[in-house]
């Protein structure tokens, strides 16, 4: 069969291309891609050599045959025939010239993926359809490699504890799931196939009270291409509530779409256990508070140790008695204890606390406390060893009553010892506790409170000292100030005003440290609760700018009527911490900006610093993690950004870091006030 007949062209000259139709037919016949033509009835009128190679049918076998019965899979034939009929009736086709991904079928019945471009024409012979078809299959080796990797991925996904998924959001807002692991049925109650078919099922299962925070976290992740980390609740199809944690990493695809690959972990059991532990912790905390209050009110000094003899508790009276300050005593070691009979120091292993721990009876015994440089005291001591129900030794507690100051040594006639004091009594009080507490390595405390105390002490020391130095300097300038009436020099008055401004900022910073510490304590104890209200944003930005080291260099951009739904004190603290962070690591903020974005207020704090190193960005908002260059980061408290995130999230908001050319930006998203 000659080429023109195979491709359905008659002789003559092509009216648009200006070439002989025979030449055009030859080009189509020898083209590397398949070319197929059909008439308005759907019968094949053109079929080139590449079509024979692709589908396995010769031109003799297919010319005049219905295309739908030849290369269209049975499940798609009705759609194909309906499309042909629609174009024949209306004369219009929305698919003209578009490249489509369609399934095809060979003469052996094998399904193959095709890339198809279709264009209809209406000529003397009536309506015709022409199509260029390309095989979209990878080569056999590549196909096997893809199948192997897909099988390996699915095997791994099945053993991951949670729902593994890939979610794609196109530039036009269309969403789909490309993969969902079978664990979906356990967490959500619907199958992976259902989730793939309906992209709204998994997001729609988020608990109604948690949807706003989920949308905010997803928006920030997609906007900044940052890892999505979200914890909340989903509603199972059977109505039960599950606690989940979602971790997902976004990537920008070549076509502009954003793809998240992540996992949904079912943490219901952990949440239930945490709730039980929290309830027990609240009860223990209340009981501990009652016990602490009772011990603090005692006039007797109370000291406790663990089974190893390490001091674990001193009440206020013990600190006062042993001349101690802070969290541990600094004086009152064993050599400060004196036997009232001999005047000899008490050995370390014979202190009342050690003897009580060893099981000896320590009741109403007398001892002299004689620290260097302080008056000698006469004490009466009682002790009790602590044991479990099984008889295991847990520690010991001693109490000491101060019965008066001693004016001289133990053998002086003027001791003033009353008849209730026996100078021959055994020696029984323990001041060794102070030395043991001082010698304990930092961080050796066994509980969260011990660790938090050590962390705060280490974190806040430099910062508090810095602000106190500023206050001392300002006060020194104020003390030496002579007014212009005395000196005739207005420059001295200006110096005073500058000093007072420094003092004011230092006091504000100290107040901020105070708020950060209490916010952290509230967070650690589960008592951080926001009370939001319609809060003006512009005054808060101006107040924060005034806290900068160089307020005049900060530009504030904000509509005066902009209001956020946030607790005012929390907004002030968030902005103050971000300004302080910029001062410490980036030479100060350059712009404080706020704007309305839909139902949220976006607050930007920009600086012109070097930014946060890539290796530190993932830990930027964690507790006791510092931003910026490690050489300068040690100057901060390592609390500010952690408190910023916690306060923002407590007000149903979110915060993110963005690197800028020649600077950095922190973006805080808060709900906008309605009305």
Structure, described:
By secondary structure, this protein is α+β, with helices and mostly antiparallel strands. The protein folds into 5 domains: 3-135, PAS domain (Beta-Lactamase, 2-Layer Sandwich); 140-266, Beta-Lactamase (2-Layer Sandwich), CATH 3.30.450; 298-440, Beta-Lactamase; 449-519; 529-671, Heat Shock Protein 90 (2-Layer Sandwich), CATH 3.30.565.10. The strands form 5 sheets. The chain has a 6-stranded antiparallel β-sheet with strand order 12-11-16-15-14-13. A 5-stranded antiparallel β-sheet has the order 2-1-5-4-3. The protein is elongated and about 130 Å long. The protein starts with a helix and ends with a strand.
Describe the structure in brief.
The protein is α+β, with helices and mostly antiparallel strands and 675 residues long. It is 38% helix and 25% strand. The chain folds into five domains: 3-135, Beta-Lactamase (2-Layer Sandwich), CATH 3.30.450; 140-266, Beta-Lactamase, CATH 3.30.450.20; 298-440, 2-Layer Sandwich (Beta-Lactamase); 449-519; 529-671, Heat Shock Protein 90.
What would you report as the Rg, rounded to the nearest angstrom?
40 Å
Tally of DSSP helical segments: 22
Oligomer class: single chain
What general form does the structure show? Answer: elongated
CATH architecture of the largest domain: 2-Layer Sandwich
- For the largest sheet, list the strands in their spatial order: 12-11-16-15-14-13
Can you identify the CATH class of the largest domain? Alpha Beta
Strand content: 25-35%
Number of E-state strands: 23
* Low-confidence residue ranges: 1-5, 7-19, 324-335, 405-446, 630-637
Stated plainly, the CATH topology of the largest domain is called Beta-Lactamase
Ends distance: 79 Å
Helix content: 25-40%
Mean pLDDT: 77
* CATH superfamily heading of the largest domain: PAS domain
Q: Helices and strands: which structural class?
A: alpha+beta
Q: How many domains?
A: 5
* Sheet having the most strands: 6 strands, antiparallel
InterPro entries: HATPase_C_sf, HATPase_dom, His_kinase_dom, PAS, PAS-like_dom_sf, PAS_4, PAS_fold, PAS_fold_3
Enzyme class: transferase
Keywords: ATP-binding, Kinase, Nucleotide-binding, Phosphoprotein, Transferase, Two-component regulatory system
Protein name: histidine kinase
């Amino acid at each position: 069969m000659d080429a023109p007949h195979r491709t359905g062209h008659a002789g003559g000259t092509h009216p648009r291309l200006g070439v002989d139709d025979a030449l055009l037919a030859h080009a189509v016949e020898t083209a590397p891609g398949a070319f197929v033509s059909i008439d308005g009835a759907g019968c094949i009128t053109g079929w080139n050599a590449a079509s024979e190679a692709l589908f396995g049918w010769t031109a003799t076998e297919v010319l005049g045959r219905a295309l739908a019965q030849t290369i269209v899979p049975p499940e798609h034939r009705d759609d194909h025939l309906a499309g042909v009929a629609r174009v024949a009736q209306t004369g219009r086709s929305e698919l003209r010239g578009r490249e489509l991904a369609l399934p095809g079928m060979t003469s052996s019945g094998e399904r193959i993926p095709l890339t198809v471009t279709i264009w209809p024409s209406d000529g003397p012979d009536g309506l015709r359809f022409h199509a260029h078809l390309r095989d979209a299959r990878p080569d056999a080796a590549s196909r096997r490699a893809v199948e192997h990797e897909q099988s390996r991925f699915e095997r791994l996904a099945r053993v991951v504890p949670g729902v593994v998924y890939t979610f794609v959001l196109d530039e036009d807002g269309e969403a789909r799931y490309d993969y969902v692991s079978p664990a979906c049925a356990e967490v959500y109650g619907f199958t992976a196939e259902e989730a793939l078919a309906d992209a709204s099922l998994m997001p729609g299962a988020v608990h109604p009270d948690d949807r706003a925070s989920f949308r905010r976290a997803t928006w920030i992740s997609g906007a900044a291409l940052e890892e999505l980390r979200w914890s909340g609740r989903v509603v199972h199809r059977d109505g039960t509530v599950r606690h989940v944690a979602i971790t997902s990493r976004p990537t920008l695809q070549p076509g502009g779409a954003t793809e998240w690959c992540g996992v949904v972990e079912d943490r219901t059991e952990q949440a239930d256990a945490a709730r039980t532990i929290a309830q027990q912790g609240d009860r223990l905390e209340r009981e501990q508070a009652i016990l602490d209050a009772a011990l603090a009110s005692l006039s007797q000094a109370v000291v406790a140790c663990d089974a190893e003899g390490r001091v674990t508790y001193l009440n206020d009276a013990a600190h006062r008695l042993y001349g101690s300050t802070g969290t541990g005593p600094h004086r009152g070691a064993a050599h400060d204890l004196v036997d009232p009979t001999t005047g000899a120091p008490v050995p370390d292993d014979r202190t009342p606390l050690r003897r009580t721990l060893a099981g000896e009876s320590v009741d109403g015994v007398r001892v002299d406390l004689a620290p260097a440089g302080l008056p000698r005291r006469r004490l009466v001591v009682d002790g009790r060893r602590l044991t479990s129900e099984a008889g295991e030794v847990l520690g010991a507690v001693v109490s000491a009553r101060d019965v008066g100051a001693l004016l001289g040594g133990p053998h002086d006639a003027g001791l003033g010892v009353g008849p209730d004091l026996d100078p021959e009594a055994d020696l029984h009080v323990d001041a060794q506790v102070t030395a043991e507490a001082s010698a304990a390595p930092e961080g050796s405390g066994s509980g969260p409170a011990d660790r938090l105390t050590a962390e705060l002490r280490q974190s806040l020391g430099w910062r508090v000292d810095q602000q106190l130095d500023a206050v001392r300097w300002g006060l020194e300038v104020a003390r030496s100030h002579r007014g212009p009436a005395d000196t005739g020099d207005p420059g001295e008055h200006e110096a005073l005003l500058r000093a007072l401004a420094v003092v004011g900022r230092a006091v504000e910073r100290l107040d901020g440290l105070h708020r950060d510490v209490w916010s952290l304590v509230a967070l650690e104890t589960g008592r951080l609760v926001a009370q939001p209200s319609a809060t003006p944003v512009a005054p808060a930005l101006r107040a924060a700018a005034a806290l900068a080291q160089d307020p005049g260099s900060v530009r504030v951009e904000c509509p005066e009527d902009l209001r956020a739904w946030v607790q005012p004190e929390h907004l002030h603290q968030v902005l103050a911490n971000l300004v302080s962070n910029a001062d410490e690591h980036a030479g100060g903020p350059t712009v404080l900006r706020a704007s309305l974005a839909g139902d949220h207020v976006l607050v930007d704090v920009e600086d012109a610093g070097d930014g946060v190193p890539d290796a530190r960005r993932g830990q930027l908002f964690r507790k006791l993690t510092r931003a910026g260059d490690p050489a300068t980061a040690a100057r901060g408290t390592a609390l500010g950004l952690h408190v910023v995130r916690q306060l923002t999230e407590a007000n149903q908001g979110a915060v993110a870091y963005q690197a800028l050319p020649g600077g950095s930006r922190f973006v805080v998203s808060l709900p906008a006030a309605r009305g």
